[in-house]
Write a structure and sequence with these properties.
The chain is an alpha/beta fold. It is built from 10 helices and 7 strands. A 7-stranded mixed beta sheet has the order 3-2-1-4-5-7-6, with helices on both faces. The chain is globular, with a radius of gyration of 19 Å. The two termini are 35 Å apart. The chain binds S-adenosylmethionine. The site of S-adenosylmethionine has 22 residues, from helix 3, helix 5 and helix 8.
């Protein structure tokens, strides 16, 4: 590692906000930004700006979510349909804009997806999961179905890991930079890429297609926000439908596309041929 890269990495790892981000992602962004020159503090500043776009909007709330997991623990008595437990989970999900937007539709959101994929039998992969797995009580998965949750954000993963342990769901969390490493992802029936493609697109134009080519699953669920996180419509619907069409061409193994959209999220269920 060059002296400059070492110094940039040291600054990033010392940053309270981003030290929980997977080192592979910190390094990838540092190398890319180093190519544009500047002093270590300037390079680190540009990396932090990009981290803010990719994970920053999640990082703060994820810490808040960890605090809120207390209420989830207190209300867990072994029944995921219990009202107080679901309210506690909903409290955590509301801490993050991306999952908060999904709350009004959660009762039917996963039922509609599984209606198109068939109920998962062995495993669900949640790629770029954030704190999304706290919606497990609404997923109605059979007890033996494993849940693999993957993200670059170690703080969100810690919350998710605590939750999976609490409710006794088999599976694991993995800190992984899905832009630089898609090899050997666990296999499953369904891969969820919920609101992940726009985030990957901002990091590397080919990353989403690379990921979908690597996924070992019969179905992938790709979703896009139907309005900005700020709540204002921006013709996003048309733009993201266009993005999906291009993605399908790039991926080349999608045999069927069906839609399970809700008012503020475009949800596409892709059937994949074996990779
Ligand atoms: C808009 S959030 C969506 C979270 C969740 N899937 C949902 O729908 O609520 C995007 C997620 O992608 C993660 N992410 C961003 N870049 C990533 C990367 N290179 N590899 C893996 N995850 C990444 C972020 O940390 C964040 O949790």
């Amino acid at each position: 590692m060059s002296d400059t890269l070492g110094e940039v990495m040291a600054r990033l790892v010392a940053s309270r906000r981003y030290r929980h981000v997977a080192p592979a992602m910190l390094r990838r962004l540092a190398v890319e930004e180093q190519a544009d020159g500047g002093k270590p503090e300037e390079i680190a500043h540009r990396v932090r700006r990009r981290l803010h776009q990719a994970v920053g909007a999640v990082a703060g709330p994820a810490r808040a979510a960890e605090r809120q997991l207390g209420a989830v623990r207190d209300t867990w008595h072994g029944d995921s349909r219990n009202r107080a437990f679901r309210d506690a989970c909903a409290g955590v999900l509301r801490a993050h804009a991306s999952t908060r937007e999904r709350m009004p539709y959660l009762d039917t959101y996963f039922a509609a997806i599984w209606g198109l994929t068939g109920p998962p039998r062995t495993a669900v992969l949640d790629l770029g999961c954030g704190i999304g797995p706290l919606a497990l009580p609404w997923m109605q998965l059979a007890d033996e179905v494993r849940y693999h949750a993957c993200d670059v954000d170690g703080a969100a993963l810690e919350t998710v890991a605590g939750f999976l342990r609490l409710v006794g769901r088999p599976g694991e969390v993995e800190a992984r930079d899905l832009v630089s490493d898609v090899a050997g992802l666990p296999a499953g029936d369904v891969a969820l890429l919920l609101k992940l493609v726009p985030t990957l697109d901002r990091q590397d134009a080919d990353a989403a297609a690379r990921l979908l080519r690597a996924v070992e699953a019969e179905h992938a669920v790709v979703s896009f926000p139907a309005r900005s996180l700020g709540g204002r419509g921006k013709g996003m619907d048309r733009a993201y439908r266009g993005r999906l069409d291009r993605l399908l061409e790039e991926v080349g193994r999608v045999t069927e596309v069906r839609e399970a959209s809700v008012p503020n999220e475009l949800v596409f269920v892709l059937e994949l041929s074996r990779g």
